[in-house]
């Protein structure tokens, strides 16, 4: 049994339904964490903040010292350079441990089948970063294995982090926020988003906490044997806002391992 299988202790299932267009909040209505709390500095070294024209707009997750993952809806609009800042705790930090890398359009790889209308294949890679590993400051999160792709993640509790707003006021949080969310069957998202919630996506219930405006691209993580495991990326939330207890949709990372293996730099994905 692989490590992730042992962590979730549940059987594999597959979900596939017909897609229909849905209204969602993405970068344009920008996805923070509602009912979260201030993160502990140094506990989430895999998190990066993305800036354009010195303005924060999305998050991402380090998967090697050369590459990060984020969502396609975060970067498909960008025509100029993007700054990737690692080791950030507060958005206005000038801490010496912060590493800032400039990513040109040539460094960004958006999934070739990304669909902005349905938000299918909502994943992107930023390469050529040359980050330096610093323990508890800048570290990568391990990717799922190929065997993890079929595991049913329903009821798994994952940690989400970000600098998005804590309410529906569109005011970003300067301090990184953290919360735990419970992954649910994709059918839990169908009443809110329609049948576009397919097997490459994950649904999360938000009775206790929710991602919100500004959190798109951020990681959903579990910790296994003191290793960070990247399950998903925040994709989109409800048009009704983040304070109404509506479910949130994530991009399931294990559904895109071949895309990551073929395009990211210095990553290793095992079979099991």
Automatic annotation (TrEMBL):
Top-level taxon: Eukaryota
Signal peptide range in chain numbering: 1-19
Peptidase S1 domain: residues covered: 33-265
InterPro entries, alphabetized: CLIP_Serine_Protease, Peptidase_S1_PA, Peptidase_S1_PA_chymotrypsin, Trypsin_dom
GO biological process, one term: proteolysis
Keyword Signal: yes
Keywords: Signal
Protein name: Brachyurin-like
